[in-house]
Amino acid sequence: MASLDERLHALIRHAYQAAPAVRARFQQAGLTPDDVRTVADLDRVPVMPKDEVVRLQQANPPFGGLLAVPLSQVRHVFMSPGPIYEPDAGDDTTILDMAVLALQRSGLRAGDVVLNCLSYHLVPAGMLVDRALVAMGCVAVPGGVGNTDLQLQIMRDLGVTGYVGTPSFLHSLIKRAEERGLPWREAFRLRVAVVTAEPLPPSLRQALVETYGLAVGNAYATAELGILALNTAGGLAMQLLPLPIVQVVAPDTGQSVGPGEAGEVVVTSLDPAYPLIRLGTGDLAVNVDPAPGQSRQEERSLILVGRSGEAVKVRGMFVHPNQLRFAVAQVAPGAAVQGVVDRVEHHDRFTVRVALADPAQAVPPLAAAIGEAVRQACRVRADQVEFVAADAIPAGAPGIVDQRRWD
């Protein structure tokens, strides 16, 4: 079997030949494929921020010169906020293999009936987990997002033993069951919860484990690259999975940071169809390395500490200020807009603040229209649309303000 360095070098050579955008990046950096023969050599390649992927795709749709196979080989196309189109040609099983590994390490096993409450709509999360569950021999129930009462009925009727989804929606299911007088441990057979797409507060994890008797896997994932790390024991550290190649680098230099230092999470996939080389996730993390220079990737961990870019994850979906501006401009041209996200009882609350060019237009029907435009553009529901004075959103104000605390 080829070593990781050999696989990486083969991927680099293929991507350089087949993906014009990859070749251009290397040429601009004065590099050839032979300059990147090992994982350590990746530090020589400039980081590619997600915003750069958006720019490339807008300039050269649909995939910005990053696709390294003919379009006819693509089986699925997903879309992440940006928008970023993500092709799946099925040539590489790494993402699926890592999803299976994460679900198994969380406690799921063949024969489990698993309610999958990740979205199947445009984003790849729901379908990826579905495929992984089937590959494991589980029964996958494609619940998707929402419909709390129906999901509870499904859980009881089918004897659901596993859950995959956001922690806040699992909390909603539990609380709704209790409101209906259903004692959780007696009425439901759920024993394993794999949560992802948003932070898991320590207080909620403790309740899931101690009060509701669940084994909890907390997965760190990205839309483009699948599950990267997993925590099953509590605490802050997320143990890296063996693949894809994950680095923590200094945002200003792109060079790997040392143990205990913080930097941006940068990932290189091994997918020959869509080779993402040194993709900057925008996530900031502390690098936890027990044996610098000697440890394997799966022996290292990350402690996530925040975001380096403007996008903010709300109820499991990244929302970018540009999406908000686009949405509001459809129904209120010239308005200034700002998103504010905070937490109420373990749930995100998303407020859209709007400063209208004409304050006389601040009426409930316009607020409803703005809310619907935001839902359509960002795929996240605004809990409130609040009209504010023009000076409340001055020029240069952040597009999204994150006021959440994860106590």
Can you walk me through this structure?
- This protein is of the alpha/beta class and 407 residues long.
- It has three domains: 4-91 and 237-307, Rossmann fold (3-Layer(aba) Sandwich); 94-231, Rossmann fold (3-Layer(aba) Sandwich), CATH 3.40.50.12780; 312-402, GMP Synthetase, Chain A, domain 3 (2-Layer Sandwich).
- 30% of the residues lie in helices and 26% in strands.
- Strands 1, 4, 5, 6, 7, 8, 9, 10, 11, 12, 13 and 14 form a twelve-stranded mixed beta sheet that branches. Strands 19-18-17-20 form a four-stranded mixed beta sheet, covered by helices on one side. It has a two-stranded antiparallel sheet with strand order 2-3.
- Strand 18 (347-355), helix 11 (364-378) and strand 19 (384-387) form a beta-alpha-beta unit.
- Helix 6 crosses helix 7 and helix 10 (321-331) packs across helix 11.
- The longest helix has 15 residues, at 4-18.
- It starts with a helix and ends in a 5-residue tail after the last strand.
